[in-house]
Design goal:
By secondary structure, this protein is an alpha+beta fold. About 50% of the residues lie in helices and about 15% in strands. It has 2 domains: about 1-110, no CATH class; about 125-180, no CATH class.
Length: about 180
């Protein structure tokens, strides 16, 4: 897998134009904002990737100043989120989509979205409710979280397929809250 360091969306697009069909995954090395160094923004990187049928995946911290954002070529079983479909629709209007991106977009329209059947504002799961009742400090900190952050955590717990995984995630969240740390 290649590691590249595009400083602009134009550099990232050039790499995608040349490599989107032959590569499967790439690591975009990025500088954190506090460094003041030029780097492509997350929305810019994501929008360019969508144009070529690619998607952002995981983030890996390198050091205090840099991190790696992984991008991968979508496969034919990939499901899209409503947001990603909306971005693609905008990019089509702007005439920025490459043929492979259009092909993957059309396939994505034929499948249920990742966030289908996910309530806009998820309910607090009973496991989390019980854990927060046992830990007042964590409960107070959870209540003070911005709604968007609460929603991220609730959906993360909700998406667990197994009970053990759900309980592990609840424990991780309560622990992070008591330590004033973000999970992600």
């Amino acid at each position: 897998m290649q590691t590249i360091h595009p400083k602009s969306k134009e550099e990232w697009r050039k790499w995608l134009e040349k490599n989107h069909l032959k590569e499967v995954k790439v690591c975009l090395l990025k500088h954190k904002k506090h460094t003041g160094k030029p780097t492509i923004t997350n929305p810019e990187a994501m929008r360019e990737a969508i144009c070529f049928g690619w998607i952002d995946t995981t983030v890996k911290r390198i050091d205090e100043d840099t991190y790696c954002q992984f991008f991968a070529k979508r496969n034919h079983n990939s499901r899209w989120s409503n947001n990603t479909l909306r971005y693609a629709k905008e990019l089509i209007k702007e005439k920025k989509m490459a043929p492979q991106g259009l092909k993957m977009y059309k396939e994505g329209l034929q499948k249920p979205t990742l966030d289908e059947d996910v309530p806009h504002t998820p309910e607090i799961q009973k496991e989390l409710k019980v854990a927060l009742e046992k830990n007042k400090e964590a409960a107070e900190k959870f209540d003070r979280l911005p709604p968007s952050r609460r929603k991220v955590y609730l959906r993360w717990i909700e998406k667990a397929k197994r009970d053990e995984t759900r309980m592990k995630r609840v424990a991780m969240l309560v622990d992070a809250l008591t330590k004033d740390k973000k999970l992600f």
